[in-house]
Amino acid sequence: MPISNFVKRKLAMGFYRFDRDKNGVVEEADLVQLGTAVADRQGVPAESERYQKIVAAHHHWWDAYFKGGDADGDGKVTLEEFWANVGRWVDTSSDAIAEATGETELLFDAIDGNGNGMINADEFSTYLQAYGLTDADARTAFAHLDRDKSGSISRGEFARSMVEYYISESRGPSEWFYGGH
Fold first, then answer.
1. Nearest to residue 121, comparing CAs of 154, 148, 159, 153?
2. Which of 114, 117, 146, 180 is the most core-located residue (most Cβ within 10 A)?
3. Could you confirm whether domain 5-172 is CATH 1.10.238.10?
């Protein structure tokens, strides 16, 4: 399924945030580096089980969303390959939204630093700062994603925003998932 230019713009922002070494492609190492950056920003000791879970959650994103898009098998995913993979996934999945919602669980748990089942502004800011955003930009994004204005993002809000970011044609809070446009 061809994806619209609007969705391509959203996907491009996320893609370039995943490209840790800024070489124009996303590789497995980029996702591992991102997980390491998130754990380090959270102050999690490198030898801890939590650290390993955070890194594993980000590594899982390589397997779930990038590896299948590596059309030429070179271990690198270009933006065009990423767009094609997302379009193919949405088109062939019987329930892309349900699948994507399930995939958000590991990432949610990696961001939820205190393990209370909610993501607060500090936790989300720490997460987005690992992607290179400023604290102010991350907090602005959080304010948009906290749909019920409770001061925290629930699993449901998180999953909905993540899924909408990747596949929704409508404008709204999900545009802010990786820091807005």
1. 153
2. 146
3. yes
User: What's the burial of 167, exposed, middle or buried (CB within 10 Å: 0-12/13-18/19+)?
Assistant: buried
Hey, what amino acid is at 106? Answer: L
C-alpha span between 39 and 162 (Å, rounded) = 20
- Please tell me the distance from the alpha carbon of residue 28 to that of residue 46, in angstroms, as a whole number: 19
Q: What is the DSSP string of 8-66?
A: HHHHHHHHHHH-TT-SSSEEHHHHHHHHHHHHHHHT--TTSHHHHHHHHHHHHHIIIII
Q: Domain coordinates of the chain in residue numbers?
A: 5-172
Residue type for 25, please?
A: V
- Closest Cα partner for 142 from 119, 172, 166? 119
User: Does residue 100 contact residue 113 with C-beta atoms inside 8 Å?
Assistant: no
With 0-12 / 13-18 / 19 or more C-beta atoms within 10 angstroms meaning exposed / middle / buried, residue 149 is exposed
Whole-angstrom distance, CA of residue 88 vs CA of residue 107: 23
For residue 20, what are its two tokens?
């840790």
Q: Give 116-172 pLDDT, tens digit per residue.
A: 999 999 999 999 999 889 999 999 999 999 999 999 999 888 888 887 887 777 777
